[in-house]
């Protein structure tokens, strides 16, 4: 249900409803490592920026940090009381951010191994969190139909984007960090200009829900993972879908580009992850 790209190598991590996470080589798909310990589905997965650790989040309400050197769980954060949809490292790897069904996002300090701050403001499940590249700002996507920007230094919400008419499932920044894309359960993609604080473009990929979106390195292509089993490649310049990738036999839950945007990796409800070149 979740997929993450290693920051340096052609390796991908997948999170699954079978309570495990796995690490594979791409594009060959050879299994390197499998991690067990969660007591419910695993949805969130992210690599430490140095590639030394992995963080996972689960329906069992916990967040686990895994150490590759010892191939073991280094720490379990039990601060949330409801399922945790998403976890992500900041760009230095000092902090972990979580998105939880309990309407909050939390910031965890990896050095001190404790929760530093709880971000409250959404009135429904926080479905996704993502850091703006190389900054203290992160975006949260919520089932309350909004996308918000928060500052981890002050703990305050600095901006909220309104316009989605259904639950927002995912958000992604481009590499420069000045554009934010978000997708919702109606299949609508919205592109926001962070500096001008306004909606710049909109594309309806519906009627099926859009579960995830990702920018390529250029920032001109946005991949959208949808419930109809396809991945739509939307051109930000052309304002239309340039390509549709078909292969999954069930909903596509997550999608991510590799470092050089030569490959696209997707994870589906059909229990497969696929590599597209």
- Shape summary: globular
Provide the low-confidence segments as ranges: none
The DSSP helix count reads 0
Number of strands: 27
Q: In brief, what are we looking at here?
A:
By secondary structure, the protein is mostly beta strands. It is 0% helix and 56% strand.
In words, what does this structure look like?
This protein is mainly β and 277 residues long. It contains no helices and 27 strands. The protein has strands at 2-5, 11-15, 20-25, 31-36, 42-47, 53-58, 63-67, 72-77, 84-89, 95-100, 105-109, 114-119, 126-131, 137-142, 147-151, 157-161, 168-173, 179-184, 188-193, 198-204, 210-215, 221-226, 230-235, 240-246, 252-257, 264-268, 273-276. The strands form seven sheets. The chain has a four-stranded antiparallel beta sheet with strand order 1-2-3-4, with no helix packed on it.
What labels describe this entry?
277 residues; mainly beta; four-stranded antiparallel β-sheet; 27 strands; 56% strand; globular
SSE map:
Layout (H helix, E strand, L loop, with lengths): L1 E4 L5 E5 L4 E6 L5 E6 L5 E6 L5 E6 L4 E5 L4 E6 L6 E6 L5 E6 L4 E5 L4 E6 L6 E6 L5 E6 L4 E5 L5 E5 L6 E6 L5 E6 L3 E6 L4 E7 L5 E6 L5 E6 L3 E6 L4 E7 L5 E6 L6 E5 L4 E4 L1
């Amino acid at each position: 249900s979740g997929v993450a790209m290693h920051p340096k190598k052609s390796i991908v991590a997948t999170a699954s409803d079978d309570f495990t996470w796995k690490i594979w080589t791409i594009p060959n798909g050879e299994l390197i490592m499998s991690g067990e310990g969660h007591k419910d589905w695993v949805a969130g997965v992210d690599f430490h920026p140095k590639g030394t650790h992995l963080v996972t989040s689960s329906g069992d309400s916990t967040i686990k940090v895994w150490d590759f050197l010892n191939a073991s769980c280094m720490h379990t954060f039990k601060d949330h009381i409801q399922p945790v949809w998403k976890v992500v490292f900041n760009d230095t790897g000092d902090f972990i951010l979580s998105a939880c069904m309990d309407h909050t996002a939390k910031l965890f300090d990896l050095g001190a191994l404790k929760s530093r701050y709880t971000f409250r403001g959404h009135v429904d499940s926080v479905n996704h969190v993502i850091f703006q590249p190389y900054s203290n700002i992160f975006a949260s996507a919520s089932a309350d139909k909004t996308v918000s920007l928060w500052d981890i230094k002050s703990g305050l919400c600095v901006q909220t984007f309104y316009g989605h008419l259904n639950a927002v499932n995912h958000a992604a920044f481009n590499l420069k960090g000045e554009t934010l894309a978000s997708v919702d359960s109606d299949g609508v993609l919205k592109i926001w200009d962070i500096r001008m604080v306004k909606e710049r473009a909109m594309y309806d990929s519906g009627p099926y829900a859009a579960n995830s979106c990702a920018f390529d390195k250029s920032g001109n292509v946005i991949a959208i993972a949808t419930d109809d089993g396809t991945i739509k490649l939307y051109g930000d310049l052309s304002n239309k879908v340039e390509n549709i990738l078909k292969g999954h036999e069930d909903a596509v839950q997550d999608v991510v580009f590799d470092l050089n945007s030569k490959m696209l990796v997707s994870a589906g409800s059909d229990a497969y992850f696929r590599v597209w070149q």
